[in-house]
Specification:
Elements: E1 4-7, H1 13-26, H2 37-44, E2 52-58, E3 61-73, E4 77-87, H3 96-111, E5 115-117, H4 125-133, H5 149-157
Parallel strand pairs: 4-5
Antiparallel strand pairs: 1-2, 2-3, 3-4
């Protein structure tokens, strides 16, 4: 199978959003996706993009994507966060995910980051095995903490 891994373009965002929705469904969060094509286009392209995105293209269709953004560690310095690496279900096991993962690692190396980090659901054993096989450390003693938009608003209202 032939595919191309490349940096995403603004016009790719509708297909990227479809992959995001597919992932949300896989993670049993069908109704959680609030981002729109317009949000992705505005936030990812322009003078100060909030993220960098790679896509895996088969023919003219995008079958996978990896979305990353810069972070900073007080212990390590520059890092990047891999928000999502998604391969459409029909293409899993073809090497597309590995190719996207490799592109993220090469990008991080080129950027001189000290760490690439991401979260994985504890029940997603195929993903955990893939990451560990590729040298990643799954830190099982850390919990992800989030303050939602509603939580932020509630906090601010108390000030």
């Amino acid at each position: 199978m032939e595919y191309t891994i490349r940096t995403a373009r603004k016009e790719d965002m509708s297909q990227v959003l479809e992959l995001i929705r597919e992932l949300a469904s896989f993670e049993k969060e069908d109704n959680a996706v609030e981002v729109t094509v317009e949000d992705l286009q505005k936030d990812g392209f322009g003078d100060s993009p909030a993220f960098h995105c790679f896509v895996a293209e088969v023919g003219t269709e995008i079958k996978g994507m990896a979305l990353i953004y810069p972070r900073y560690s007080t212990w390590k310095g520059k890092t990047i966060h891999l928000e999502d690496l998604i391969v459409t279900e029909s293409m899993r096991g073809t090497g597309l995910g590995s190719a996207l993962f490799e592109e993220v690692i090469k990008y991080g190396h080129e950027q001189g980051v000290k760490r690439i980090e991401w979260a994985v659901l504890d029940w997603n054993e195929p993903a955990i095995k893939f990451y560990e096989k590729n040298g990643a450390n799954v830190l099982r003693d850390w919990d992800v903490v989030q303050l939602t938009e509603e939580g932020i608003a509630n906090y601010i209202s108390k000030l």
